[in-house]
Amino acid sequence: MPTQRKIDLVAELSDKMQRSQLAVVADYRGFTVADLFALRGKLRESGAEMIVAKNTLLRLAARNVGKESLEPTLEGPTAVIFAYDDVAKVAKVLVDASQVKVKPLKLKGGLLGASPIAPEGLDAVTKLPTREQALAQVLGAVSAPISGVVGVINAAITNVALVIQARIDQLQPADEQAAA
């Protein structure tokens, strides 16, 4: 019979899986507590969190939210990294951690949205623009036409002002132009 603590943990894991845009399963064997603490800090800075839980509880959570495709990766010591906002930034941290020569993080796979992703596919995710870059691109695309319209209106106003000034100069008597 499951304990209340395990039921609560499965509910919490289900919520995290449901909210995450990227969930990556990794094998953390060979890592010391200090190494895991440092990795968790880097992940936290990029808007992600790392959870170490029993595979059985992770399987139940995956089934609860309809992400059964995560189940084959849940073998051996497992840590799950959940990214909620900027998946490219988190993927870069994970790929960097998996390429360290001393104690590499062994990525097993994961989910990008609802689609399964292989460890090699995570490298492609790192090439996506970060959230800030994507927002800047969208803002640039939206503001460019507006800037053009403002420039055209400003040029038209300037041209009208120049024509009026030229007409004023024409109508002034020659004596006033010499004095000015």
Automatic annotation (TrEMBL):
Keyword annotations of the record: Ribonucleoprotein, Ribosomal protein, RNA-binding, rRNA-binding
Family matches, as Pfam families: Ribosomal_L10 (PF00466)
Transmembrane helix keyword on record: no
GO biological process, one term: translation
UniProt cross-references to Gene3D superfamilies, sorted A to Z: 3.30.70.1730, 6.10.250.290
Any one of the GO CC terms: large ribosomal subunit
SUPFAM superfamilies associated with the record: Ribosomal protein L10-like
InterPro entries to which the protein is assigned, alphabetical: Ribosomal_uL10, Ribosomal_uL10-like_sf, Ribosomal_uL10_bac, Ribosomal_uL10_bac_type, Ribosomal_uL10_CS_bac
A molecular-function term among this protein's GO annotations: large ribosomal subunit rRNA binding
Biological role: Forms part of the ribosomal stalk, playing a central role in the interaction of the ribosome with GTP-bound translation factors.
Subunit field text: Part of the ribosomal stalk of the 50S ribosomal subunit. The N-terminus interacts with L11 and the large rRNA to form the base of the stalk. The C-terminus forms an elongated spine to which L12 dimers bind in a sequential fashion forming a multimeric L10(L12)X complex.
Family label: Belongs to the universal ribosomal protein uL10 family.
The name this protein goes by in its record: Large ribosomal subunit protein uL10
